[in-house]
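Hi support team,

I submitted a single chain yesterday and got back a structure, but I'm not sure I'm reading the token output correctly. Could someone confirm the output below corresponds to the sequence I sent? I've pasted both exactly as they appear in my results page.

Thanks,
R.
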Amino acid sequence: MKLCNSNSCLALALLFFSINLPWLLQGLAPGNETDRFALLNFKRGITSDPTGRVFNSWYDSFHFCSWFGITCSPRHQRVTSLVLKGQNLMGSISPYVGNLSFLRILDLQNNSFHGQIPQEVVNLSRLQLLLLNNNTLKGKLPSNLSHCSQLRIIDLSVNGVEGKIPTELGRLAKLERLVLGVNNLTGEIPPSLGNLSSLTRFSVLRNNLVGNIPADMGRLISLTFFSVAANHLSALGNLINLIDLGMEHNFFIGVIPSFIGKFWKLQGLLLWGNRLSGLIPSSLGNLTRLSILQLSQNKFEGSLPSSIGNCTSLMLLNVARNHLTGHIPQEITGLFSLSILLNLKQNSLTGNLPDGVGKLINLNQLDVSGNNLSGEIPTTIGDCLSLEYLNMRANSFQGGIPSSMASLRGLQELDLSRNNLTGKIPEGLQRLPFLQYLNLSFNNFEGEVPTKGLFRNASALSLIGNAKLCGGVTELGLPKCPSQVMKKGKSHASKLAITITCVVLGVLLMLAILILACRVRMSRKRSSPTPSSMADKHHVKVSYRDLHQATSGFSSNNLIGSGGFGSVYKGFLNIERERPVAIKVLKLRQERASKSFMAECEVLRNVRHRNLVKLLTYCSSLDYKNNEFKALIFEFMGMGSLENWLHQPAGNLNFLQRLNIAIDVASALHYLHHLCENPIIHCDIKPSNVLLDDEMVAHISDFGLARLLFTNNDVFRNQTSSIGIKGTVGYAPPEYAMGSPASKEGDVYSYGILLLEMFSGKRPTEEMFVDGLNLHNFVKNALPERLTETVDKTILPREMEEKSATSSALPESEYKKEEIQGAEMSQKEYLLSILKIGVACSAESTKERMEMGDVAKDLHLIRSKFLGVRIYG
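Hi R., thanks for writing in. Yes, this is the structure output for that exact sequence:
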């Protein structure tokens, strides 16, 4: 059949090719074929793919743009990212990777690639992220990486790269992060790196570099993290925006320059394990944001500057293994913020351990061993209620062990060996429930050794070098104590007469005390204003008139909150020197209000902790209408409640602030549950009962439902409140609804819900939680795959920007969001760990819930890792 003439056929053919030519050319494009060929050669360099999921799709039956780890540009179908991080791959990096000319991201971190970094990488002119860290690569750095003019991040840390740092790197004008730590680099730091004006992180720690930091490096005023090796600090004077300065474990020499005090944003200063000498500059006291100060294992001399006491955010101070002399400044032992470690060991410090050490109520570890300290151990040491590790060995302490040490109920290790201590071993030490190691050797103790608690375990106890000790368990091998022999001059009749006389006098004395107590009680009932019967000598005395004046007649303008049992007003008491106070006025017409008042007073009378609201005094009196009036006066918390910060637009807490608050609350509950003489259950942990002071330190408040627990043969019984209501809907554990008594596990559940709310941004009472779904199940079912859907959206983006600035490194149109975030995944890992703790605490079964001591430890560890803290002796 005749279909067309020659002219019409030619026209149809031209029309067909004009329509389909772009698709035909794309399939035959040499660039596409070059990319496919380069990827296949890259695959041939891999000798092991343990999971099999990486290269199962790398076959011709699939287009290479759909292969695992490959992303292509939509328009040209050219490879723009090769991301195979954390797949346990083994092999070498093929030189053909240099043919992927459109590549912007090369991410092979956390594998086992060996061999050299191929020189052909320098052909990748569009490359922006080069992430090869945590492999076993060797050889030298490619010398012409400056050809990759778009590079923003280079991370080659934790490999075996050797040789010198190429001078040409100074031409990478857009470079923001240069991380070369933990390699075998040698030579000096090129002065040309001073041209990298966009650099925000520079790390070459744990290398073998020599020489000085070039003076040109001082131009890097935007630097937020700096870590170098085998150099000194003289050229850092312009780095006023530093946040973390990490130079640990290298070969630094010289002194710390005084201008370090200009780095007012500095939060972490880690210089341990070098050869620094001279004085520790007093200008460090200007660093009021400093959280971590690690100066151990150097050659510092002179005294420890008292100005460090101005570092009111300091959580860790480690100056161990230096040549420091002089006294321990009172200002340092008065740092309430110290919570992780105070390590002064192996210096030549003299004088007494200051009495102010008792102010370190939140400190976890204290080590003053190996010095020349003398005098008696201060009794205030018993106020350090969070101590778990206390080492005072190898000093010249005298006197006895203060009985107050029995208050350190969280103590796990205690070393007082090699001192000049005398007297008997306090029996209170055998009641420390968590003590695992006790070393009292080489002192002058005498008398009978206790036989309970830790003293039953001879392997956990060292008493050698105390010749006058006796008794104890047989495994200690001590001589038996001589029996008490009555003096010969006393007859049976005289002993009987003395006994009868003592009994009669005792009965008379008890009657006199009872009569006096009754009279005092009657007198108090007849008087109108009653000052705090439980306020110590520092507490003020207030009346209804004082409070009426302080609040302008309890004006609504001064009302700052209202709860089930009362209203809270802000006021100013003249006797408090015009500092604001919070006045909680009880609604006495409310059922159980009076009991709530007594419960809260009884609790707050017996507790002292940095993260518990401080009761100044209370008032129990009559108002101007002769109605009964009761009020509690607290220290004012200037930043309000956690509830407002979580759920009001003005709040906007960042990740670290939330973590600090979570640690504060966990520390307070650990104290209440395990470190009080009589354990306490709060019964109503929720955001509105967590108050923040001006430094954003969290304090637990509102003990109106609290219960005191007394131990008797390890069986707990309720002592104070008989209130039926326990907790708040959403935060109260499910067993309370079934009539179960209040318990520490109930507080743990409430804390778990609080923790999930803090990091998810969702209240447990939101409308979405119906038909068996609650906040616990919502988070648990989402982890770990849907972590980003669970986390409060206000946290992750901002913190990612603060930690690494990685998210802003590339236009989002040029990469996959999840791939660029691979450059800084630790933030998600921290969030995942925190949410897992919240899920574990809020488990439905009480047996599956964590203890608050373990919660506090785990959160401390997360914060330490987040801040880059490593604790070394």
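A quick pointer for reading it: The chain has 16 helices and 43 strands. Let us know if anything else looks off.

Best,
Support desk
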